[in-house]
Automatic annotation (TrEMBL):
<dbReference type="GO" id="GO:0004029">
    <property type="term" value="F:aldehyde dehydrogenase (NAD+) activity"/>
</dbReference>
<dbReference type="InterPro" id="IPR036291">
    <property type="entry name" value="NAD(P)-bd_dom_sf"/>
</dbReference>
<dbReference type="GO" id="GO:0005737">
    <property type="term" value="C:cytoplasm"/>
</dbReference>
<feature type="region of interest" description="Disordered">
    <location>
        <begin position="117"/>
        <end position="136"/>
    </location>
</feature>
<protein>
    <submittedName>
        <fullName>Nucleoside-diphosphate-sugar epimerase</fullName>
    </submittedName>
</protein>
<feature type="domain" description="NAD-dependent epimerase/dehydratase">
    <location>
        <begin position="3"/>
        <end position="215"/>
    </location>
</feature>
<dbReference type="InterPro" id="IPR001509">
    <property type="entry name" value="Epimerase_deHydtase"/>
</dbReference>
<dbReference type="InterPro" id="IPR051783">
    <property type="entry name" value="NAD(P)-dependent_oxidoreduct"/>
</dbReference>
<dbReference type="Pfam" id="PF01370">
    <property type="entry name" value="Epimerase"/>
</dbReference>
Amino acid sequence: MQVFVTGGTGTIGSAVVAELLANGHTVLALARSDKSAQALTDAGAQVLRGQIADLDVLRTGAAQSDGVISLAFGSDYSTEEALARSIAEESAAMAALGEVLVGSDRPIVTVSGTPWVPGRAATEDDPLPTDGPVAGRGRSVNALLAMASRGVRATAVRMPRTVHNEGQGGFAGLLTEQARRTGVVGYPGDGTQRWPAVHARDAAALFRLALESAPAGTAWHAVADEGDAVRDIAAVIGRRLGLPVEPVPQENFGPFGPIFARDQPATSVRTREVLGWQPTHPNLLEDLENLQP
């Protein structure tokens, strides 16, 4: 099928584009810059120029395609206001894309995060949070999934806190970036909190499976590592970068601080059983060994 992809040059998106093309699909991808357009062209995708805020462009891309994978999200997380703007922008984009598909039974796959459940690992049956710093994202994903009743095969792939490739990406990547800036690998809390993780190429395979076969209104977990202790993640980063490792206030991480400090393991048992997804790439702690000083 021809698939319209937004966010096709990010850590997840570039892997998704490659996965789709390698499995016989064609890709029409949104590009907001010459650099992104060239990267997508080099990968073998067709390019539609525009930004996630260009709703008419998004509608055009969806109308020309047999399915949609919506991955684009703003890159400014520096303040609560900036994060809220990115969530609102993503919500408007998903609504516009979904409306184009009403009555067609065509698929749209969107992305969200795995939920957190006190005292146990989250499963695919647990609802997304509708309060807290990313509450708006949960509400917009739920609204898209509700479009199943209007003839849209809407599904969601829930991503863990770290989606990685060659040691880069996700919450672990943010720890690394901050460590390079400050000279200390800092982590919030006592470091025993667990973050789930997945390799980007394994996540990409799940997006393709959801696009091809997941029933409408369903959510799936792209979780390979159910939960790595944050201090173990920080220890590998510190060793690879030659920097000290120590706890720091969660406020150091801006709007993500409360999320960084929370224990949030997750499982993917049902996803593996129903969709046949099997992660095959290195786990997070192995992949972090690729970090260069």
